[in-house]
């Protein structure tokens, strides 16, 4: 078994901004796992917020032993980008070896298309209103916020897309006081869910204050071990493969979180169709799907996922799985 790691860059269609900064390209690592003439692929997006760099993630992958199983991998690497790319590549390889699709191997029902949110990045109210108007035909918009001056942005987006469903993501950018002030207005403007309003590790107040709309844990939820600290604070969890460390843990987290009463959101980092493909399996039946990474790109994989507007279809074998 050979494991190869290749850094790749995909240009974004336009600058993407959240409360922590902006980017104009998606920097990913592509992993190829080859055995007996067959190759499985996976992709990850190292994320500085979690202390990851492309160099360190690549080194962790390159340091793995020459013979791997999905089960063994869970003990060799912690949850995160490195384990994600290798885990998904091993699933892809297993499907090729078996001549079956990943969902068959995993004992899952055949997946169908799902409706994804489309993300509007943080900008001036005027530009966010214009962006909302351009995408007002989409059924679900996700709005990046996370500053003390977000109210004009919210109003502007609602003016631009009066009929769209809206969720917002503060990316840990608010204080408890800002969230208290904004929450009634989020409800008034028809916002259906708010992601990570407070910093992970400083979110205990969520158990004490009113939550007039569902609050979703993103940076506070990585894998199943995270769930114990979410009780009473959150109503939903955002499952991302780059946080769980791959499809194996993502499926387990989804099942346990749902059993504990959480709503399920399936999200992504900004990556290519190869990163989204396994997440489409996790997204089956989720209350919120946010797998719009390829829609934000100016370029994608040769055999990308098929998007029809905001409807994303399961991957073809030529891409993954």
Give the C-alpha Rg.
19 Å
Report the sheet with the most strands, covering strand number, pairing sense and barrel closure. Answer: 8 strands, parallel
Can you give the mean pLDDT? 96
Helix content percent band: 25-40%
Measured between the Cα atoms of the first and last residue, the distance is: 18 Å
- Which residues form runs of ≥5 with pLDDT under 50? none
Annotation, overall tally of beta strands: 14
Tell me, briefly, the overall form: globular
- Helix/sheet category: alpha/beta
Question: How do the helices and strands follow one another from N- to C-terminus?
Answer: EEEHHHHEEHEHEHEEEHHEHEEE
What's the number of helices? Answer: 10
Tell me the β content. 15-25%
Oligomer state of the chains in this structure: single chain
Strand order of the largest sheet: 5-6-7-8-9-10-11-12
């Amino acid at each position: 078994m050979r494991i190869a790691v290749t850094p790749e860059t995909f240009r974004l269609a336009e600058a993407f901004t959240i409360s922590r900064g902006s980017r104009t390209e998606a920097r990913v690592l592509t992993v190829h796992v080859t055995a007996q003439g067959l190759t499985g692929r996976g992709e990850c997006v190292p994320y500085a917020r979690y202390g990851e760099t492309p160099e360190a993630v690549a080194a962790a992958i390159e340091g793995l032993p020459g013979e791997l199983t999905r089960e063994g991998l869970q003990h060799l690497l912690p949850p995160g980008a490195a384990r994600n790319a290798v885990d998904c590549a091993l699933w892809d390889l297993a499907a090729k070896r078996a001549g079956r699709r990943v969902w068959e191997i995993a004992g899952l029902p055949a997946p169908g298309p799902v409706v994804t949110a489309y993300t509007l990045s943080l900008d001036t109210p005027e530009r966010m209103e214009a962006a909302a108007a351009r995408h007002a035909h989409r059924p679900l918009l996700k709005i990046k916020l996370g500053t003390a001056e977000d109210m004009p942005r919210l109003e502007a987006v609602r003016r631009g897309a009066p009929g769209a469903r809206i969720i917002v993501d503060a990316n840990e950018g608010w204080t408890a006081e800002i969230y208290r002030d904004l929450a009634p207005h989020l409800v008034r403007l028809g916002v259906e869910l708010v992601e990570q309003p407070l910093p992970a590790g400083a979110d205990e107040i969520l158990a004490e204050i009113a939550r007039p709309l569902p609050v979703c844990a993103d940076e506070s939820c990585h894998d199943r071990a995270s769930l114990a600290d979410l009780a009473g604070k959150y109503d939903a969890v955002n499952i991302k493969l780059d946080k769980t460390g791959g499809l194996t843990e993502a499926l387990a987290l989804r099942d346990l979180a749902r059993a504990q009463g959480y709503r399920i959101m399936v999200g992504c980092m900004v990556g290519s169709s190869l990163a989204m493909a396994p997440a489409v399996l996790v997204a089956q039946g989720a209350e919120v799907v946010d797998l719009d990474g390829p829609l934000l790109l100016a370029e994608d994989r040769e055999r990308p996922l098929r998007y029809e507007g905001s409807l994303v279809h399961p991957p073809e074998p030529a891409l993954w799985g």
